[in-house]
Design brief:
The chain has 278 residues and is α/β, with parallel strands linked by helices. 29% of the residues lie in helices and 33% in strands. The protein has helices spanning 15-25, 51-59, 80-87, 127-136, 155-162, 175-187, 218-228, 248-257, and strands at 3-11, 32-36, 39-45, 67-74, 91-93, 97-101, 111-115, 145-149, 167-172, 193-197, 209-215, 232-244, 261-268, 271-277. The strands form 3 sheets. Strands 10-9-8-11-12-14-13 form a 7-stranded mixed beta sheet, sandwiched between helices. The protein has a 4-stranded antiparallel beta sheet with strand order 2-3-1-4, sandwiched between helices. Strand 13 and strand 14 (271-277) form a beta hairpin. The N and C termini lie far apart (47 Å).
């Protein structure tokens, strides 16, 4: 497969700026990233790379005072996602959840999730994923029905299935995410999770779910959560992340219109996770 190599120069070159750029650039087809001295190098399959969308992402970068330039070239003919996987040594979350790849042995953790991720944001190494997984340790899941919205690699839904959820429904608009989730379901021997390709409309006729998980950016949450709520039962629980600390007032304002109240919140490196209940 032919890949495009995109080298980003980021000023200031901070963790939060790199995280945000990498997270948003996934929509432009960039699958994997490596940190460099001045920013990031990303790799995208040539047939999936959307330079127009990338330019829009940079022009509308959500943090002020950040300058981003890039240049692109045809990458060496290698599978760059496999290269990223080789560099991923696994991550231990809250001392109990080990996420590891096919290349790495698992730690002696209470929960072990084996993955073959397409990028770091579905591996548990990103703050948003880690915060939700950590919170799920304290949420009653056994026997519950769960929706994993924008499932990505499926790691959140798979963890719920491991903790005894009776049924998990994941969905994602990206075909590669659906395939990656299906792969991980099989790798971990999960029998109680299904995944669908599509947007929030794919759950329009679903009812009676106990728990809704969504690790998605602010604008999509503001747009889609009201639709998601049709699938949540009375007294259901919603756990949201994928947004920044300054986005919380907007999320809570939307949540209030849906009869949701905050019961827990956590912020790390400006990324925020909220637990809401009906």
């Amino acid at each position: 497969m032919k890949y495009i190599e995109i080298t980003f120069d980021i000023t200031p070159n901070t963790n939060i700026n790199r995280d945000i750029l990498a997270s948003l650039s996934g929509d432009a087809g960039i699958e994997s990233f490596m940190e460099i001295d001045n920013g990031l190098t990303g790799y995208a399959p040539a047939d999936a790379f959307n330079v127009v969308l990338l330019d829009e992402i940079i022009a509308n970068f959500p943090l002020p005072g950040v300058e981003i330039t890039y240049f692109q070239k045809e990458a060496e003919d290698r599978n760059w996602n496999e290269e990223w996987e080789k560099s991923f040594t696994g991550v231990l979350i809250a001392g109990k959840i080990m996420v590891y790849t096919t290349e790495n042995p698992s730690d002696d953790a209470e929960y072990r999730i084996r993955i073959s991720p397409r990028q770091a944001f579905g591996s548990g190494s990103h703050q948003t994923t880690a915060m939700i997984l950590e919170r799920l340790l304290d949420v009653e899941i056994a026997g519950k029905r769960v929706i994993d919205a924008g499932c990505g690699t499926g790691i959140l839904g798979i963890f719920c299935a491991m903790r005894g959820a009776s049924h998990v429904l994941g969905y994602d608009i990206d075909n590669w995410s659906v395939k990656n989730t299906l792969e991980h379901i099989a790798m971990n021997g999960i029998k109680t999770m299904e995944v669908r390709e599509g947007d929030v409309s794919t759950i329009r006729n679903e009812k009676g779910y106990d728990l809704l998980l969504a690790n998605i950016n602010r604008n999509i949450l503001l747009r889609d959560v009201p639709e998601m709520m049709r699938s949540l039962k009375e007294h259901g629980t919603v756990i949201l992340s994928g947004f920044y600390e300054e986005d919380v007032p907007f999320i809570l304002e939307m949540a209030k219109t849906q009869g949701l109240r905050q019961v827990y919140g956590l912020t790390r490196e400006r990324w925020t996770m909220l637990q809401l209940e009906r």
